[in-house]
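Following up on my earlier message about magnesium ion. Here are the inputs again, as you asked, copied directly from the submission form:
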Amino acid sequence: MLLGYRMRTQTTNYIARLFAGDLSAFGGPATDEAVAGHIRAEQMSLVLGYSVGIMLANACNAIVLAIALWQSPDRMPALIWAAAVAGAAIGFGLQSHVARRITKPQFVSRRAMYRLVRNAFILGAAWGIVPVAFFADASSGGQLVITCLCAGMLAGGALAFATIPIAAIAFTAPIFLGIAICLGQNGDLAFLLIAFLVVVYGSVLLRGVFVYSFSFARRVMRQIEAERTVRLDPLTHLPNRVAFNETLDAALKRLALSGEEFAVLLLDLDRFKEVNDQFGHPAGDEFLVQVASRLQRCTRAAEHVARIGGDEFALVMANLTRPEDALEIAERFVAAFSEPFQIEGRQMVGAISVGIVLAPRDGNTPLDLMKNADAALYRAKKVGPGTVRFFEQADDKSSRERKALQADLAGAIARNELFLVFQPFLDLGTNRITGFEALLRWQHPSRGLVPPSEFIPVAEETGLIHEIGEWVIRRACATLADWPEDIRVAVNFSAAQFHNTAILQTIVQALADARIAPHRLEIEITESMLLAKYGSAATVLNALLELGVTLALDDFGTGFSSLTYLRKLPFSRIKIDQSFIRDMLVQPDCAAIVKSVISLASDLRIGVVAEGVETTDQLEYLRQISCDEVQGYLISRPVAADGVMALLETKKYRAIYAA
Ligand code: C2E
Ligand code: MG
Ligand code: MG
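Thanks, got it. Here's what our run produced:
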């Protein structure tokens, strides 16, 4: 009894699996439900593709049969049968024609498949009735027509349902059964031979259906796999940009159809480049993988963070009822970085900034939304690591402005719009000019003179700083070649320039071309730059020092841990930031700082330059407290290259500023 029960449950199980499109029990490929649903969708769309033609053929066949049986005693039942079959076929054909126009679904449920199989069975049963009910009393012509129809229906049905074995069986089995009953009622040898042939053809047909359906299922699976690969980021296993764009498109479609609002969160890792530079790419990769899993844990179940660039992630938050929900998720993203990361046995601190746009408020095209999200992110990053910002209309203006400036700056060197001006350093001991700082200027054809504070950040963001920085070095060295031997030139360096070791080659070449001693070239770096980039800057900085180039620490006092760097790097000079010089005569604490920096520097045997000296009082005070050199409008504003020689030759500085 137990055996019987077990066999019954096993059979039911087989049939259920066959129904569900799982062909593994019959030698086909094994699938999980998600893939099976996708395969069912493909099968269904193929059958729906044929169905209009098939239904027309059914209606046609039913009418032909009615005509063939016109003379038979079964005329009336045959007519009723034909009308029912033709009517149902036309109805179903029209219905599937409409269904075909709706977009193909990605997933079809088991239930929909059951319905298809049931309909196939009903249609097959309708045809199975024909040989049983009408064959015996039909004329020999009528019998020939019934034989042809049954054969045609068997072959056509198997062909139409070739990808779905269970539907092919459901359709053909009743016809086989009808034929079997019909032939069995008649003892004629010819009919027995026909029965034998029907069994042979049926087996071949069924075998063909299974083989074809297996290969079809395998093809669909390969296609699913290929599509999955195209949409997946191989490193983090998050959806990639392709998948993100599709999600965004789908959200925009829903917005257009039903007004469903949504948010896009654009995330950018803060200082990821440094992680890569300091710890190497494998550690950078591991960091990204851990970041991905932390981010994914912050989202709602059905939503997936996508990795859309090196260190850029994005999320579409569908069905947004309150903007606060987007803010809440964004804050969760930021909070996910509060714990340090453990990478290759080391602790790494990370942070992420987030820009948020709301659709339709901030745009209703992918381009607008992403552009605005980018602008919001830009503003967030400017505030500092771990910041969240919603898009504001003002962002749009400033981002357009930035883009325009970027585009113009790209061609500025080629169009000869950049030039250098030089501002002297005055030695307070000798009252002589010891050198000049090269300061970059951009003469824009319509904007006029653009200050470096505006275009240097743009150049840094776009990477144009490398080209521009190289140009500055070459031009400064070439200009220096015409100056007396004891005069130096100081060139400002951006943090980004240390990412590119090619700058070393440029410097070597520029010094050689201009035939100048390396110690006459001074590189100015700011302490905030060192703070952010020390790790990655070390290689280039050390190579520069080996070359004999000197280093100055610019804007001293505006960063935090400068003293550490004074020990780490052999600076030749510290430049005290102009904010201290401006206030030192009115604010005692500023004076105290200036004094102690000067005495510290003298202990360390490092030269000191006071920046931004504008009054003789400031100059005199600096002289009293033994500052080495001064720079500022009082001595000279930055002058064009051809004004340098005139400045050097003017003796009036000695006269005016001598003690
Ligand atoms: P910085 O290196 O601290 O340059 C000193 C700035 O102070 C210059 O502004 C200079 O004109 C200004 N200055 C000099 N004396 C006085 C004074 O007495 N009073 C006042 N109020 N200002 C004075 P500038 O030329 O606008 O440059 C601004 C910043 O842009 C520079 O600060 C530097 O960080 C950056 N920069 C300039 N040229 C380059 C360059 O070629 N490459 C890079 N990466 N940055 C540059
Ligand atoms: Mg400077
Ligand atoms: Mg400075």
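One observation from looking it over: Residues 2-229 form one domain. Hope that helps, and feel free to reply on this thread.
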